[in-house]
Amino acid sequence: MDILADLRNGEETVWLNPDKRSVVPREKINGYGFARMKAAQMRFMRFMPWIAQAFPETAAKKGLIESGLFEITNMRDRLNAEGAGVTGRVLLKDDAHLPIAGSVKARGGIHEVLAIAEKTAQNAGMLWPTENYGKVYSDEFREFYSRYTIQVGSTGNLGISIGRTAARLGFHVIVHMSSDAKEWKKELLRSEGVTVVEYEGDYTEAVASGRRQSEMEENSFFIDDENSEDLFFGYSTAAMRVSVQLRKMNIPVDRDHPLFLYLPCGVGGAPGGITFGFKQLYGDNVHCFFAEPVQTPCLTLGMASGKGADICVQDIGLDGRTIADGLAVGRPSGFVCDMMKPLLSGSFTVFDERLADWQEKLRYLEGMGVELSACAGFRGLYEVENEESRFAEYLQKEGIAEKMEQATHIVWVTGGGLMPDAF
Ligand SMILES: *Cc1c(COP(=O)(O)O)cnc(C)c1O
Fold it and tell me: Mind listing the pLDDT tens digit for each residue in 264-301?
């Protein structure tokens, strides 16, 4: 297969998912439907009174965890002048500035921690779903949660999302950090009282070790990025928020106005959950593509080979080293590969060298500071309307080649808002 040769050679490439099929809004996928996304959304809402107190930066929005969606005309014009060729509107989803986590990991990680907090307190008879959860912000609850440990393996951002939330609830938190994790992320966590364990090896190893350690301890929860449903459906709630933002901006999404998403991908949970959510709302009118570094195209590899989590990038001779630390994952989530089979439009890979250029342009054209991993989606703007790209075949097959002037493109910018030099 062509695509596997491209991946093996570390070339930039585009993969189209041959198993994508037509889906209608609210259609169940592998047994999972709209109710799961809605339940996650409701859990976030129940906890808003706690979030607003524990993280005062969210108080103005009463504990809502939200980020901006805005048009980036300057950036689009500049990229078009330099070889991209987008005729529709280009928006940026600014998850780099989601509160608490400063990355796309906020919705997934915080949701899973809240699910654990809710379940343990309910089992102990301390909390009812109809109550005001503001009461969780108290010494009584902190003392209760301090009897439990939450552990997670992370390249950095998941650790921040889970670590900060769990620590403020009162949990004992251990984050198992892969060698790719940046120093400032470890410092930030230590300053919140989180225990950081550092590994020489990669993400897969940090996860495996964390899982083992957690199993040996009593009252310890391991948050498993490779298989977690609570993470996945937490991420999916982004779609409900963005649909409101699009409506407020009077941007239609329908047969004549296709919506394209470009989502940076590591293990697959965040872009997978977001894709699930958007397909639940917009069905065939949304087209979701994942962006991966050429050295860690783990999800493309898992899906294109049909092997899911049974194959890793080292198996095809890649070294798995990338400066995009948030995407430095060699083996994809098997759960996400299964969920994406009927939904994902495709994916593309990106050279590391390009990331700093987009990061710099965002700084001076749009006034945003973000991390390198956050920028990978911009590559989609160079491919989508390029006649020579496999995207051309995709647009034909979907019958939308003539509608691209009415299309909306969302480049999902995923992290870096808490970087020491971010703004
Ligand atoms: C984690 C992360 C992603 C991708 O999420 P996965 O769930 O690992 O696929 C993208 N961008 C940034 C900045 C991240 O931290």
Answer: 999 999 999 999 999 999 999 999 999 999 999 999 99
- The answer, yes or no, to whether any atom of ligand 1 lies below 6 A from the CB of 374, is yes
Asked if domains 2-101+232-413 and 105-227 share a fold, the reply is yes
Mean pLDDT of the chain: 95
Probe target for ligand 1 pocket from 110, 327, 347, with the most ligand atoms within 8 Å of CB: 327
Q: How many CB atoms lie within 10 A of CB 29?
A: 17
Q: What percent of the chain has pLDDT over 90?
A: 90
Residue 423: what pLDDT? Answer: 56
Alpha-helical (H) ranges within 352-403 are 352-361, 379-383, 390-398
Give pTM, 2 decimals.
0.96
For the 105-227 domain, the top CATH level (class) is: alpha beta
From 111, 226, 414, the mutation candidate for ligand 1 (largest count of ligand atoms within 8 A of CB) is 414
355 φ, ψ (degrees, to nearest 5) = -65, -45
Over 90: is that where the pLDDT of 114 sits? yes
Q: State in Å: Cα 309 to ligand 1 middle.
A: 17
- The CATH T-level fold of domain 2-101+232-413 is Rossmann fold (3.40.50)
Domain definitions of the chain by residue range: 2-101+232-413, 105-227
Would the CB of 414 count as within 6 Å of ligand 1? yes
Closest to 375 (Cα-Cα) out of 384, 362, 387: 362
Residue nearest to atom 2 of ligand 1 (CA): 326
Ligand 1 centroid to Cα of residue 326, in Å, is 5
Q: Which amino acid is at 24?
A: V
Maximum pairwise Cα distance, the chain: 62
Distance 328 CA to ligand 1 centre (A): 9
Res. 1 pLDDT band, cuts 50 70 90 = low
